[in-house]
Amino acid sequence: MKSIFLSVFTCLMFFSTNVLAQEDEGNSGTVYSKYGTGFPLLNNTAQEKAMGIIGISFNDLGSPGLSNPAFWGIGAFSKIAANFDFANYSVKDSFSNGSNSLLKIGSFQAVFPLSKNQLGLSIGLYPETRSSYNVNSEETVIQGGSNINFLSNRTGTGGVTKFEVGLGWKINQRISLGYAPSYSFLTESEDASLTFLNQNISNNTVNRRINGTSVSHRFGLLLSERGIFGKEDIIQIGGTLTLPTNFDASQKKTTTKIVGTESEVVEIGTAQNADISLPLKMGAGISYFPNSKFNASVEFQTEKWSEAEYGFSSSDESAFVDRNVFGLGFQYHPYKDRSSKFLSNFKYSAGVSYDTGHIKVNNEEVETLWLSAGLGLISPNLRSNSSFDLSFQYGFRGTTSQNLVEERIFGINLSVNLTELMFLRRKLN
Predict the structure, then answer these.
(1) Alpha-carbon torsion 237, 107, 349, 40, what sign?
(2) What is the DSSP string of 240-307?
């Protein structure tokens, strides 16, 4: 029985990455996060998500932003932000449909002005990739000339998280630069269980754990110009570069063995080491502010996933393809008219984005189209630029052809921005 299980498990690990099955209703994310280190994230704020952009060329003075380090040296306020995300997935394949949801803390960032409107320090903690999936399927393998039918369940969590400390430097009114080194740590956990329809074959569960650490680097550039088409207008051109991140990762597999009436965790083989890497990323964008109440942005980012490594699974690595993300959006903020009307206290955003995806499965690229809208509320306190930003997204991802899964995603994103003159020295009366 043990040899049958090992043969079936080997076949499952080899073939299951090419056939995706329906997720059950429950607390999980996209089924496509099972590849490699997980689904890559943009880590844009709720305000930037509402505009459909990455945040490379746009960032207001009332909130910090992770996307471009060059913004961190601009402004006199200390800024702290926490981002929260909720997503509901309606999923279907060729045979069934279902739904699942995921509530998560997105990122945390604090930016402090070391020199007013010139040099700023950013401290951030955020996920670079995320795995959260629960995949069920019916499988059949041929062993010794006979068909062996079984149910497969794979549940995984983890990804790459970065702790980052960086600097932004405003050289002059036109040029700003930024640099952000980070400590990256990789953790992956997957439980794979096989339930055999033949009761003479015992069921089995295999636990897989992957860990690794690395140091990564990214850079930002911002060019600003005023008064090109009018007295009040501003054009901002942003650029970012993230160098590849290389992990020397280790993997352990264990299973539970029943001895009499007791269970015992047994390690399968010895720990394995392999190279895992995240790709080179380059982004650029243009934001135009014709006046103080309106702005529009166009942004683009490319990620060289075809050059990424995932040494623990050749099938996962072969699925990687270069990813391109395009975003277009605008924002209107009538509160700058100082109107007393309630709706004039908000800023309004809308946008659209298109993501070609970082994987290709069964000759199908897993693309995503997002439609976005949102609003933000600014603090009425003149000494504070604190705000709440809320975005709503509806996305279309994947396809039901080629045994894949089609997802319809409804997302809500919240950014809480505390922006204060924390180090203002009060005068005594």
Answers:
(1) positive
(2) EEE--EEEEEEEEEEEEEEETTEEEEEE-S--EEEEEEEPPEEEEEEEEEEETTEEEEEEEEEE-GGG
pLDDT digits (tens, 9 = 90+) for 266-289: 888 788 999 999 999 999 999 999
Please give the Cα distance from 53 to 48 (Å, whole number). Answer: 5
Q: What total number of domains does the chain contain?
A: 1
Q: Cα(first)–Cα(last) distance of the chain, in Å? A: 86
CATH of the domain at 321: 2.40.160.60
- Whether the predicted pLDDT of 90 surpasses 80: yes
Residue 73 belongs to domain spanning: 31-127+157-183+218-244+279-420
Pairwise CA distance, residues 234 & 161, whole Å: 35
Does residue 71 form part of some domain?
yes
Quote the tokens at residue 82.
């926490």
Give the residue among 160, 65, 153 at the shortest CA–CA distance from 109: 65
Cα→Cα distances 414→87, 100, 107, 127, 329, Å: 12, 20, 11, 16, 18
Query: What is the pTM assigned to this prediction?
Result: 0.86
